[in-house]
Each structure stands twice: as structure tokens, then as C-alpha cells.
What we know:
The protein is an alpha+beta fold. The chain is 37% helix and 26% strand. A hairpin with a 5-residue loop joins β1 and β2.
Amino acid sequence: MVGGNEPTITDLMMARAPVMAAGGIVLRRGAVPLIAIVRQRKRNEWVLPKGKLDDGETPKEAAHREVLEETGHDVALHEFLGTLVYQSGGRSKVVHFWRMEADGGPVRKLMNDIKAVDWLTLDDALVRLSREYERAFLTQVGPIALAAAGPALAVVAEPAPVPEPNSPLAADDIDAALQTLTPAEAASVEELQHGLLQKVKAWLRGEA
């Protein structure tokens, strides 16, 4: 190749590797439970708080750091909720999410990339979010997060259609996502979702 070196196997592998990120479904208790979403400064989009892992960080550590930086609130981390995988810049982006709760006011200024944070009901957050795949994800995990926080917070959102991915995801991407979780977290996802959904249904029937 004129004017440069041929790409190495490592270069090609790095270009193919998914971008790993983490974030939170952040709840704030009150008369009506609220969920945090943030507004990006560059794209002016409303999104769930999340960000890429720093070198040496675990997904859970990155989730806590990113939520603190993007919402300004220190939070308590709870159970793992699920993984969102989508295409971004020609690569797969894998984002692990945990349920979190904020107590009290902000403890720091928002990072420069974020211009605002808002606390909304689940239904309002689903309307405000700019990205269809985040709305579909929150439709699935939002009621689970509220149910896990306690019956007083449990609500059921209207179902949203799950969008078609921009391009098919390779099995290696899913394997890479699961490898960043602890075995207990990866094994408990299906059991957690099933159990909490049953809890919501029981609560709605007045059995809880």
C-alpha cells in the first residue's frame, strides 16, 4: 500500500470488535417514580445515561461512573437488567444496564457532553427518548426496574415495537457481551426478568 503500512491482523480485529459500554436505568422515589434521561450537547438527543468503558474498568464500574458524570447524582447500584446491542459508526455497540436509585440532589456538575438531565415518568421517558431502540429497550426493562424497586413503584408501560437492526449482529458480538459479565449476572438475566414480570402481574391482580 503506497504511503502507509498494510493493516495488521490486530488492526482488523480491533475494527471488528464491538464497542463496550455500560449505563443505568436510574430511578428516583417519590409520589410518582421517575426515571433519569439526559440530553446530549453535540447531537441534542435525549438518551439513557451510559458510556464507554475506560481501560481496566468493569462494566459495573463504568456504569456507576458514567451515570454520576451524566446525571450529576451519586446512585446505589442494584441488579443487572439487560444488554442493549445496536450498530453505531459501522460497529456493534454493546451496552450493559443496571437498575440504580438516586437519593437526594446532585453532587456534581454535569459533564461537558451533557447539557441537561430530566426526571420523567416511565411513559413520558418513552415519549422523550430520541432513539427508537432505546425506547424499545426501556419498554422491556422499565417495568422490571420499577417492580424490583417495590410494589409502590410498579407500573406497566404500553408496549412499543422492537425495531429491526440496521444490520445483523454476529454471534461473536453476543459472546463478547456476555463475557464482560460475571457468570452469576449472565446466568440470572432470564430468571430475573421472568420472576419480576410475574411479580408485576400478581401485583396488578391484587395478589401482592
